[in-house]
Design goal:
This protein is α+β, with helices and mostly antiparallel strands and 417 residues long. The chain has 8 helices and 13 strands. The protein has one domain: Deoxyribonuclease I, Chain A (4-Layer Sandwich). The chain has an 8-stranded mixed β-sheet, covered by helices on one side. A 5-stranded mixed β-sheet has the order 7-8-9-10-11, with no helix packed on it. The two termini are 23 Å apart. Keywords: Endonuclease, Hydrolase, Nuclease. This is Endonuclease/exonuclease/phosphatase family protein.
């Protein structure tokens, strides 16, 4: 039997590492459908997938997974079909004991779903996020405190809309960096929102609020994965949607700066010098490091409500390669659904999320963006057209899986066999 590890962080300002160990038998990863298995690809497949496994109350995800959950089974089938080696799951509710992560691996991923081969992830990482953590302030200025909108990240309970990284390769837990507590005001030139009712600039938040307000609506994680002799840094995040606010555009501005954080982190040491992690270590990623930026960034480079240039901070970054993954299903959906999609400037083939067709329409918001020193072998979005295999796993609202699609990129990594 092989050791299987779940690593994460305790919900404290010191963010101490903890481990939960379970045992699991090796899984045979022979594919039954394209995309092909890692051994045949001779490439590292890194994926991001907003799985919408968020629930309205704390503990409900664990209860649902224990009872048998059709949505979770369908999501597992997508992962068994696409077979990523490393995958970030957004909107996966966090629980400190890691029960939901273990249940999802044991009862769903390692069990065949509709004939697909099981898939085993020996390593997993999860940690606390800012969603649902009460700030103690009236952050939306509606005269009330203690609401979901007054949390450091929108949420009904601490850990709602959390994140998980699953990996076939070892995670260097001692080198993980998290940035849950980084303050928004500590970013030079931050786009702090302005109260339009006053003449003072950038005053939507009080000085007291800015001393506590965190940049990350969930968190930012730098997770080093050991792929043979090569370290690949998985840079994971889930910025807030740039909507659900008012003329101050507090969410749009925060979304922009959450995205900017990684843009600065992978840039020069001078540009990233202001950054500090939850352990107090300063600076960004070491020059020359290999990385993949993954997550639901809630920003389309051409359409939607995000601040102009929010997504292009990454897509046009000199150290980042945009593989521009496409799908047939996205093109078909834009044509069939019409509405706002008919007025979009972006290429519908690049869309990764099936949103309300009146506004904003389908968008490209989910990304797997490698550093330029990780050559791209292939990339794609799991969004089959109606007459293609797997279309029953995407479908139309109410979606059997999620309103987001799985996005993946295949990378050449030195020494990978």
């Amino acid at each position: 039997m092989r050791e299987r590890r779940l690593t994460g962080l305790l919900a404290s300002v010191t963010a101490a590492l903890v481990g939960v160990i379970a045992l699991g038998a090796p899984a045979v990863a022979t594919p039954v459908s394209s995309p092909e298995a890692a051994s045949a690809r001779e490439a590292l497949r890194v994926s991001t997938y907003n799985v919408s496994l968020n629930r309205p109350s704390e503990g409900q995800l664990v209860a649902d997974l224990e009872a048998g959950d059709e949505q979770a089974a369908a999501i597992a089938q997508v992962l068994q079909t696409t077979r990523p080696d490393v995958v970030l799951l957004n909107e996966f509710d966090y629980d400190e004991a890691g029960e939901a992560v273990d249940l999802f691996r044991d009862e769903y991923l390692e069990v065949s779903q509709h004939g697909e081969d099981p898939i085993e992830y020996r390593y997993a990482y999860t940690a606390p996020v800012n969603t649902g953590v009460d700030s103690g302030f009236d952050l939306n200025n509606d005269g009330e405190t203690g609401t979901a909108d007054d949390a450091f990240g929108f949420g009904e309970f601490a850990g709602q809309y959390g994140m998980v990284v699953l990996s076939r390769y070892p995670i260097d837990t001692d080198a993980v960096r998290t940035f849950q507590n980084f303050l928004w005001q500590d970013m030079p030139g931050a786009l702090l929102p302005d109260d339009p009712a006053t003449d003072r600039p950038a005053d939507w938040y009080s000085a007291a609020e800015l001393k506590e307000l965190r940049l990350s609506s969930k968190s930012h994680w730098d997770i080093p994965i050991e792929v043979g002799n090569t370290t690949v840094h998985v840079l994971a995040a889930h910025p807030t949607p740039p909507s659900f606010d008012g003329p101050e555009d507090r969410n749009g501005r925060r979304n922009h700066d959450e995205i900017r954080f990684w843009s600065d982190y992978v840039a020069s040491p001078q540009r990233s010098s202001y950054i500090y992690d939850d352990e107090g270590t300063t600076g960004g990623l070491k020059p020359g490091s290999r990385f993949v930026i993954v997550g639901d960034y809630n920003a389309d480079p051409e359409d939607g409500d995000s601040v102009n240039g929010a997504a292009t901070q990454l897509l046009e970054h000199p150290r980042v390669n945009d593989p521009e993954p496409v799908s047939n299903g996205a093109v078909e959906a834009a044509e069939v659904q019409g509405g706002a999609n008919a007025f979009h400037d972006g290429d519908p083939a690049l869309d990764t999320a099936d949103f309300d067709d009146t506004a904003p329409g389908n968008l490209r918001v989910d990304y797997a963006l490698p550093s330029k020193n990780l050559p791209v072998r292939d990339a794609g979005v799991f969004w089959p057209a109606a007459d293609e295999p797997g279309s029953e796993l995407t479908g139309v609202e109410p979606f059997p899986t999620s309103d987001h699609r799985s996005v993946w990129v295949d990378l050449w990594v030195p020494g990978l066999h």
